[in-house]
Amino acid sequence: MVNIALPFIMKDFHSPLADTQWVVMIYLLTITATLLFWGHLSDRLGRGKVYTAGLLIFGLGSLACAYAPVLAFLIFARFCQALGGAMMMAAGPAIIKETFPKEQLGRGLGLIGMAVSLGLMSGPSLGGFLLELASWRVLFFITVPLGLVFAFLAIRILPGPTRHYTGPLDWLGSLTWATALVLLCLTLTHASSSGWSAVRLLFTGGAGAAALACFIAIETRLPHPILAMKLFRNRHFSLAIASAVLSFMVLFAVILLIPFHLDRILHLPPSKIGLVMLAIPSSILVVSPLAGWLSDSVGARSISTLGLSISTLGALLLTTIQASTPPLIIAGQLILLGLGQALFLSPNSASVLSHVEASKAGAAAALLATARNLGMLLGIAQAALIFSLYFRGVTNGLDLRDFRPEHTASFLSALHAAVLGAALIGLLGTTASWFRGNSEHHRPKK
To answer: Smallest Cα–Cα separation from 320: which of 409, 395, 207, 412?
Structure first.
């Protein structure tokens, strides 16, 4: 719903794209920066506790978003909302791993993918209708009671705490990881901004790279790190994580930019924008259960690689859209993108989780969710960067907020360049997925 609302939030606050994208970026950045910590904590305190607390924090954060008077406050409220979202994402897959027997893990994750797609499917369509009838603020209001109700249900239903780890928390690693992500994201999002000099960008990017190097050094030396570096010695595991990052980069580059095309170029009302974007989650809904079953029957490598290949093809087709392209054609290309993502996600997730011991399930689930959100974050950042650089270059320095009908050709050239970049990333992800090998049948010992 928030992605659909971005053009309207931009109009309401009259903010540039570099600032408006932070409504989505801060959410993804916070989740990516804290997921490993919450997974680490859930192994210590119990996954049910962390999941329930996340629901409560998410609901309160939604309430703050709904009342945001200025863009800066909205971004801060999204940060608070994301803390709750990260707690749920870190604990959720580990709860599924504990609930389902090993031979049905792919099917269990396929059902979760089906539930996620129902949320994604209702988001664009419901969000579009609400935007047309009321305001973007209503989108946040409706999640407040949901967060509170499901927190109550979680208290009643989820299992009690099972502690898999009782050692000290890795505070230093958590802070270093968060610092590295913040600095690198600031560098990416402001690379096309006239307000940031080359020296400032170089300093921020260099500091981010140094923080990342420090994080790796810290995690390599600690006995109980938030990120178990030894997991990456397994080629199958490391390439599955890498392909997850690249897969979501493709998806979210498209999710960021296509609503602007539907709004600025095709002049669709919000409800129809929601219906067009509905193509992605509806295809995920249909295919996810099949993907989970195929994962258990065939294995992750071939199904995941096929899925990423189809997603890459969908992104390539989106580079051909013009001002006269009917919304139905765009929806068809988005269906192809969503179908590929569905074929990739469940098999890849089951493959990652099947390679870890029960005591590391929380950390592995958090790492998997971190990979997804890092992909979303980087996908949005690179798409916005490429689009902004192209659009500024052909319009003598204008921002997307200054768009007028005479800039249509400039908009399309910038859109094509950004989506082509996403397709190339998809090709790289397809290669990584294929070269993971066929080791998914070798399960870790208890």
So the answer is: 412
pTM: 0.75
> 176 and 163, same structural domain?
no
Shared domain for 190 and 157, answered yes or no, is no
What does each of the 446 residues of the chain score in pLDDT, given as a tens digit? 887 888 889 888 888 877 888 898 899 889 888 888 888 788 777 788 888 899 999 999 999 999 999 999 999 999 999 999 989 888 877 777 777 777 776 677 667 766 776 676 677 778 888 888 888 899 899 889 888 888 888 888 887 666 555 567 778 888 998 899 889 888 887 776 667 788 888 999 999 999 999 999 988 888 778 777 777 777 777 888 899 999 999 998 998 899 889 988 999 988 888 889 888 888 877 887 777 777 767 767 888 899 999 999 999 999 999 999 999 999 999 999 999 988 888 788 777 777 666 666 666 666 777 788 788 888 888 898 899 889 888 888 888 888 888 999 999 999 999 999 999 999 999 999 888 766 544 444 44
Same domain assignment for residues 96 and 144:
yes
> Does 297 reside within a domain?
yes
Residues 331 and 402 in one domain: yes
Are residue 294 and residue 151 in the same domain, yes or no? yes
d(CA 257, CA 268): 14
Residues 164, 262: one domain?
Answer: yes
265 and 150 within one domain: yes
Do 157 and 179 lie in one domain? The reply is no
441 in a structural domain: no
Q: How many domains does the chain have?
A: 2
Which residues have a Cβ under 8 Å from the Cβ of 298 and sit 6 or more positions away?
A: none
How is residue 278 written in tokens? 């509905």
Element (H, E) at 121: helix 105-133
Does residue 325 lie within any of the structural domains? yes
DSSP string, 181-217: HHHHHHHHHTTT-TTS-HHHHHHHHHHHHHHHHHHHH
**CB-based contacts of 252, cutoff 8 Å, min separation 6:** 375, 376, 377, 379, 380, 383
